[in-house]
Write a structure and sequence with these properties.
The structure holds 2 protein chains of 2 kinds.
Chain A lengths: L1 H20 L8 H24 L2 E2 H24 L1 H11 L4 E3 H22 L3 E4 L2 E4 L1 H16 L8 H6 L2 H8 L10
Antiparallel strand pairs in A: 3-4
Helix pairs in contact in A: 1-2, 1-3, 2-3, 4-5
Chain B lengths: L2 E2 L4 H19 L10 H23 L3 H27 L1 H12 L5 H9 L4 H14 L3 E4 L2 E4 L3 H16 L2
Antiparallel strand pairs in B: 2-3
Helix pairs in contact in B: 1-2, 1-3, 2-3, 4-5
Classes of the chains: A mainly alpha, B mainly alpha.
Chain lengths: 186, 169
């Protein structure tokens, strides 16, 4: 029982630290801040609890703290990145809660696509000049790793929900196999 | 100062179950057991793992703290696995990078969008992501209009706005 309560206390500390840290400027990504905060506050919490409370079981603490921290990160990731939830909140703000498909595409989805391009440019995974966008060596290496992981997991398609749900890996891998960014499933 | 790091039998079994989940997922990704749809595959892997865990826990019959600890450990592994799985299968930025790599040439923004959607207009991507809202009955399509569900949709939208404000997004 003590272990479970220590876990809850560790998470409470993590929640406070992460909420403050996420609002501060800095180069560290939000997910990295979540991870660093969760690990740091957990270590501090366990050490303090062992010092103040005496012997307690480690695993209940780890289970409670870990579960709450993952739920916390899950909630953050959903509202931070989800295109679907972004569309939903825009619908809620619109009079009549109605938008046309064209309006959603032009006003919300296209800017989202452009913001992801910015992310890839900032990460030096893509480069831009007058001729358009091209993959960089770093981007190519990263894409190859992603393709390897997708191959290991038997996942192909283009990342669309509908496509991924219906595409058969064995039949489409060859279509995407283009040498530089070689699909491992072939 | 003392912390007992040795897991009980119930916790040890739960830790093993956490490791079994990715193995079941991989087993369902290839060969005769393969389930084609990634979403269904993950659900099946989770169901098999949890059923195995429940059977083991019933056989062991640990105390409630160990039972709760084990359930939380496996729930953590399930949520973490789901996050990684969705990123690999449907990640937006990740898929855009792969599309650019597969094209093997310079692309304009429009061409990049076409490469990402598999030759369909960007509106196809909009419909694709709207599919989540439609499945969860948070919105519905009426002709070319998307209408938010008055109760459920508004509730989710309010919860999302609350979380965005809470996290400072």
């Amino acid at each position: 029982m003590t272990g479970l309560l220590v876990g809850v206390a560790c998470f409470a500390l993590h929640a406070i630290v992460s909420l403050v840290w996420l609002r501060l400027p800095g180069s560290l990504s939000p997910v990295a801040r979540h991870a660093a905060s969760a690990l740091g506050t957990y270590a501090v919490g366990v050490l303090l609890a062992a010092w103040w409370l005496g012997p307690f079981a480690y695993w209940p603490t780890a289970a409670v703290s870990g579960f709450l921290a993952v739920c916390w990160l899950f909630a953050f990731s959903a509202v931070y990145k989800s295109v679907s939830l972004r569309i939903l909140t825009q619908l809620a703000r619109t009079p009549g809660h109605t938008l046309s498909l064209k309006q959603i595409t032009n006003d919300y989805v296209r800017p989202e696509f452009q913001s992801r391009i910015e992310v890839l440019l900032r990460m030096n995974c893509a480069e831009e000049n007058e001729g358009g966008f091209a993959i960089t060596p770093k981007g190519s290496e990263t894409a190859r790793k992603i393709e390897r992981i997708r191959g290991l997991c038997g996942i192909d398609g283009n990342g669309m929900y509908g496509n991924a749900e219906t595409t058969d890996v064995a039949t489409t891998a060859a279509d995407h196999n283009t040498g530089v960014c070689e699909s491992p499933v072939s | 100062m003392s912390v007992d790091f040795v897991p009980s039998l119930g916790v040890a079994v739960s830790l093993v179950a956490c490791g079994v989940l990715p193995m079941v997922l991989l087993a369902l990704s290839h060969g005769p057991l393969r389930i084609a749809a990634p979403g269904n595959r993950f659900i099946f892997a989770v169901a098999i793992t949890w059923l195995l865990w429940i059977a083991a826990i019933i056989a062991i019959a640990p105390g409630w703290v160990d039972w709760l600890t084990g359930a939380l450990l496996l729930a953590t592994a399930t949520l973490a696995g789901f996050t990684l799985w969705t990123l690999v299968a449907w990640g937006f930025t990740v898929s855009m990078l792969v599309a650019l790599c597969r094209s093997e040439r310079r692309l304009s923004e429009e061409e990049w969008a076409l490469a990402y959607t598999g030759g369909k207009p960007l509106a196809a991507f909009t419909r694709d992501r709207l599919g989540v809202l439609l499945k969860l009955r948070l919105a519905e399509v009426q002709g070319d209009q998307v209408v938010m569900s008055p109760r459920r949709g508004l509730l989710f939208a309010k919860a999302t706005t609350f979380l965005r404000n809470l996290f400072g997004v």
